[in-house]
């Protein structure tokens, strides 16, 4: 597949004059992600017979982007860490901009946007890299629109995790789509007020210590340089799977029938992730006594005493881990129900412990991770509503989280054409993917 860049634009927020400066402090939840790989998503849209891409669609996308950035001003800024400041911040200066790459591809749109196995290297080329910058200053957003002539187009979004979590990214994309289709932002105006995050100030320094400890750049504790992107192996493939509402209900019933404990938290999140975790550990094979762990991001918008507005824009998630388990526990005959118990207990713990205790549990568990541990994580949610992102030419035919190809992670989203159940993305080497698919399908 060949990608040809036809234009690179610097899109400024729509104002009558240069926008004002803005300094936005990072919260405890933002700081966890300052040296984390960017979040990358791509949305695919079909071109209809009489769609005029060059004269209508692309100009409308650029114009509406400028309009929506006026409301999402932090996205045109950069993450900075000045020598005199104890922690980084997002700084927006007059004339700051977002880079929008316009490209064309000769690939098969229907192949890349379908749910079967696809080459990951071709999907990855549809999202941009964050523009290069200094170690103490990094961009927070980059965008790429790629045309597949006479087939469709894609919108690739690359965002720094300290600027926004998955919920906030989805809100931005839906806001952009609403402006493009309707000419106004509607009810999706973001809340940029950082004072709504009610977390003890001492946790800022604590999480920065941990970030520095695990940083790949040991030369400077204040460096904001992101880890280098790893080359994706040519035999890495992606698949999008679905657990229907019926599948989820069957998994819940199976858990109820096989578990001896009562009062477990048998949500869609718990049973879906328990099933995926057990299948993936089983697909990897190897020593049953090898260490494994499961990681997810818990949303704290309703867990901080005073509720955080649904429209809050930033990061408000904390990593939560299921530590100290052996592969055989979740891959054996009772692997699924054991995984249900483990994840259910973790989710209940998030609901009963405060943010300080959960932060320490995460730090302690991470410090104790044994070398060679198989870490499986889940990103995204079936509540983000990315399939509602209609720019005026119909909702996406597919939404993919590209950044799961850097580690062993699943992505989760709502299903496109039916309420209930979940859509799941996964990247693996071809041989391991074939085994995983067999286990996934035969166990339902």
From TrEMBL:
Keyword Magnesium: no
Short name of any one Pfam family annotated for the protein: Transferase
Keywords: Acyltransferase, Transferase
MF (Gene Ontology): acyltransferase activity, transferring groups other than amino-acyl groups
Presence of keyword Endoplasmic reticulum: no
Superkingdom of origin: Eukaryota
PANTHER family: PTHR31625
Protein's recorded name: (rape) hypothetical protein
Species assigned in the record: Brassica napus
């Amino acid at each position: 597949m060949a990608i040809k860049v036809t234009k690179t634009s610097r899109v400024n927020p729509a104002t009558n004059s240069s926008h004002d400066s803005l300094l936005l402090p990072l919260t405890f939840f933002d700081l966890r992600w300052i040296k984390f790989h960017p979040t990358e998503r791509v949305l695919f849209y079909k071109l209809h017979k009489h769609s005029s891409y060059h004269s209508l669609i692309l100009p409308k996308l650029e114009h509406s982007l400028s309009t929506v950035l006026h409301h999402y001003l932090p996205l045109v800024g950069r993450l900075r860490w000045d020598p005199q400041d104890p922690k980084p911040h997002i700084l927006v200066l007059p004339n700051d901009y977002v880079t929008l790459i316009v490209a064309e591809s000769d690939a098969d749109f229907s192949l890349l946007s379908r749910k079967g196995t696809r080459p990951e290297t071709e999907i990855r080329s549809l999202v941009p890299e964050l523009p290069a910058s200094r170690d103490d200053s990094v961009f927070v957003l980059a965008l790429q629109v790629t045309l597949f002539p006479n087939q469709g187009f894609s919108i690739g979004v690359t965002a720094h995790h300290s600027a926004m979590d998955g919920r906030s990214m989805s809100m931005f994309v839906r806001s952009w789509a609403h402006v493009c289709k309707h000419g106004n932002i509607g009810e999706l105006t973001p809340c940029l007020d950082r004072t709504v995050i009610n977390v003890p100030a001492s946790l800022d320094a604590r999480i920065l210590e941990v970030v520095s400890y695990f940083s790949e750049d040991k030369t400077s504790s204040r460096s904001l340089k992101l880890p280098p992107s790893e080359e994706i192996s040519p035999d890495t493939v992606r698949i999008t799977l679905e657990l229907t509402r019926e599948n989820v209900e069957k998994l819940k019933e199976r858990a109820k029938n096989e578990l001896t404990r009562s009062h477990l938290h048998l949500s869609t999140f718990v049973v879906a992730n328990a099933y995926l975790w057990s299948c993936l550990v089983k697909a990897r094979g190897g020593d049953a006594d090898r260490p494994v762990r499961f990681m997810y991001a818990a949303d704290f918008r309703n867990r901080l005493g005073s509720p955080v507005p649904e429209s809050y824009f930033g990061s408000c998630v904390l990593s939560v881990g299921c530590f100290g388990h052996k592969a055989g526990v979740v891959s054996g005959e009772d692997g699924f129900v054991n995984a249900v118990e483990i994840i259910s207990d973790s989710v209940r713990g998030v609901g009963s412990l405060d943010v300080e205790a959960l932060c320490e549990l995460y730090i302690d568990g991470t410090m104790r991770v044994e070398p060679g541990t198989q870490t499986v994580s889940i990103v995204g949610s079936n509540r983000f509503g990315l399939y509602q992102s209609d720019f005026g030419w119909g909702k996406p035919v597919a939404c993919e989280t590209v950044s799961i190809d850097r580690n062993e992670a699943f992505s989760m989203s709502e299903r496109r054409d039916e309420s209930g159940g979940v859509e799941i993305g996964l990247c693996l080497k071809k041989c391991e993917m074939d085994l995983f698919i067999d286990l996934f399908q035969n166990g339902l």
